[in-house]
Amino acid sequence: MKNKFLLIFSCVVFGISSAQVGVGNPNPAVNLDARSATGNSAIAFGNTNQTAMAAGAGAMKYDNTTKQMFYSDGTNWVSMAANQTTTSFIPKVVASGRANAGMGTTAGGAFNKWTFGQIFTNDGNWNTTTNTYTVPVGGDGFYQFNLAGGIVSSSGANQSNWTISINSGAQFWTLNSVNNFGAGFTSYRGGSVAIFLNAGSTINFGSNHCAGCNSPAETYSVAVGATFTITSLGSNL
Prior knowledge:
Helix content is 9%, strand content 42%. The protein is mainly beta. The longest helix is centred in the N-terminal third of the chain and has 17 residues, at 2-18. The termini are far apart. The model is unreliable at 5-15 (pLDDT under 50).
């Protein structure tokens, strides 16, 4: 009788050890399946004092100090974040807005900063008072800037540029230009540019206009509805 019991018990243990195990899942599809129909299927990982070699290749842990996930390659703990493909780009809109009022601008070649009364997207780095975006700490990378809007001139002899200013005018990028588009006519233009920027860099959107097209100088204004978008493309660092 004792030998029969041991035989039956051994078969049960073998059956359990070789079966697929479900955690909150009555129909596991893999060796360990925690997918739940209720949606509560998170698996928690924490710190471990084991070396990567002792844990074995394929083991994972969460480091409470660095706030990162690591996996063991059999020799070392490797950060999953640091091991991402550095040439991949995941676009993300970090700021966008619209001008809900017209703006007066001046001729003479100086940069005229545009203001945007409606902000649709803000990752916390667009200053709604100064209409300035500041690249955040750790945000070094490529950014795409888009600007669109209509400009009106009081004279048929005119010239306008749709422009972004980097670091308070240390750099200017002209996205589009137009000449002599007719007095009182609204010229709708726009453009985009992708630039690599470091943390702390500042960006403003705006325009500059003809210096010397007329005497006295013509006036310019920006029509309601101008828009901007800033998209973070990522980094190849």
